[in-house]
Amino acid sequence: MRLPIITFGMALAFCAVHLFVGRLRWLDRTPRSRWLSFAGGVAVGYVFLHILPELGAHASTFEDATGLDAPLAEGLVYTLSLVGLALFYGLERALALSRGERMAREGRDRPHHPVFWLHIAASALLVALIAYLLNHREDPSAAGLALYFAAMVLHFVTADFGTRADHPEIYDARGRWVLAAATLGGWALGLLVELPELAIGCLFAFVGGGIVLLVLKEELPEDRKSFFLPFLGGALLYAALVLGETYLAAA
After folding, report:
1. Which residues contact 243 (CB under 8 A, 6 or more apart)?
2. pTM of the shown model
3. Rounded CA separation 208/205 (Å)
4. Mean pLDDT per segment of 10 residues, for the chain of length 251 residues?
5. How far apart are CA 130 and CA 132, in angstroms?
6. Is 141 helix (H, G, I), strand (E, B) or coil?
């Protein structure tokens, strides 16, 4: 477990992103801000250099806890990740359809309130687990925690910016407070409760798929008019930091 004061400071930084992303006016532009593309690149680097390897590591936990054969245990982990990706994809599609329906009927480019709140609830689950993992990560090093924190801060910037764009009125009035509360709740749960490795593996696999979907949906759509070079730079910089940290840890 990490020093609580350090992880608490990191959780507060996550909350600050949730609460104040609407004030980053310079991000709200077309074509897409280069900083958002850079942040997206870092988040994609996190997906490939942390999420996917950790999913593989959790496969051994599933194998030991359930007695399943290694290929079946690994398949189960990735199936849970696929379920998470499919769920968040379904939520994104529901938002898009709801916005289209309200635009056609009422001339308002906003999703229906229940659909948006369902999206907020799913996002709250994700941010709570991310905050929980501040106190329970497989990588015990300070450098590993710092890289995790940096990647998640930038991920929250892009994810919260996209969520707020769907319905800024609800997000600013109540949605951001729900996400901040979920963050602090997840951090506190990490101090008070140490879940079994199997439970952490299930949750991580599920939300790992959600993170993959959220990262890619913010960068890939053509109407985002994203910038490739900042995106590539963010991914390469994060990869260099991770590889450097791994090399120093092994030396």
Report:
1. none
2. 0.84
3. 5
4. 83 96 71 75 82 80 82 88 90 88 85 90 90 79 84 87 87 95 96 85 81 74 68 89 79 65
5. 5
6. coil
